[in-house]
Amino acid sequence: MTLSLTPAELARRRPIWTALSALFLDTELEEADYRHLARVLRDSGCSPDEWRTILRDEVAPVVGGHLLGTAGEWAGFDGTWLETAVLARPARPTLTGRWALRLIAPDLRRLERACAALTRS
């Protein structure tokens, strides 16, 4: 079954999908990028467990394959494409997504540290 969200849930998810998809770009993120992503996640009202589930079940299965190919995405994923792709498939982990999550593990740790720093300040 594909992901079914109310308009309010969809509006809440869009910035989360966009923020988390940045972890799968074929570019080096800077500390300022991690701080920005952490603010987006904080402002969404998602708990760390919730956004990690969204990352694992919704974002990584859709964009994770870009890291496994020879020509990755550099500029960012189109928001309309990302939303359509996430909504078109069941929200669950995939093998490709799991491999991609292993590849972004250092970036994920940096994002988690940025999120923790926001809660402390």
From TrEMBL:
InterPro entries: DUF7079
Residues of the DUF7079 domain: 12-109
Protein name: Response regulator receiver domain-containing protein
Native species: Deinococcus gobiensis (strain DSM 21396 / JCM 16679 / CGMCC 1.7299 / I-0)
